[in-house]
Amino acid sequence: MKTLKNHVILFDNECPMCYAYTKAFVKTGMLTQDGREAYQEMPQNICPLVDQQRAANEIALINTETGEVTYGIQSLFKIIAHAMPFFKPLFLFSPFVYLMRKFYAFISYNRKVIIPVAVKVNSLQPTFKLHYRITFLLLTWLITAYILTDYAHLLTGFVPLGSKYREYFICGGQLFFQGAIISFYRKEKLWDYLGNMMTISFAGSLLLLPVLALSKYLDIQPVFFVLYFLMVAGLMFLEHIRRSKLLKTGWLMSITWALYRLIVLGLILIL
Asked: Which of 46, 107, 180, 233 is spaced 20 to 30 A from 256 at the CA atom?
């Protein structure tokens, strides 16, 4: 692999994903040992070259010899194509570039709700883009509800199956229920909270996939599926508490999160 010399990539040191993949660039030799810096600690000689807000939105790659700056997916393409030239034709293929640019932006503008960390005071944050957040909420809602609909068939000995759209209404209902509460309680946290909440739901649904796969090949007692589901729900609740602390929303949102699920379960069992 060829090393891209005389370049510095600026990553967000409050973003675990950004930290990990830029470190991988250095460890694999795609960048030199001094080829990455946190934009929060931007070297003085680089500052005049970089649009700092854009660097917070899209990772910046600076050529320290010419002063040229690339942002976002183009920064990643430049590093990878230099290390592995056979990727160059793909990175020049317009439909692929368009899709990857949109995918990169989708992840970048939602990264603070995918993997949240405590935000430092006066730290430069990515610009909030409502359409990317709404897209994230819709996508996680649809995938989560689809997986839960499949998993519901494993619980029929304990919970009535219901209609094929039941889990979609339940997941969507929680979005509106929690959204209404946070709007009255801490309106300024609305979109950050909903993003974190749906990340938890999405992660919980992914944890159900291994058991769904095993159920197709192994004869497993139905009670196992219930216990596993309860364990996942417990982990989700603990994660909700952790993220609520990071968001500084207190205990109310975690209590209402659990209350909504208990109310729904009661209605399912009664009706």
From this structure: 107
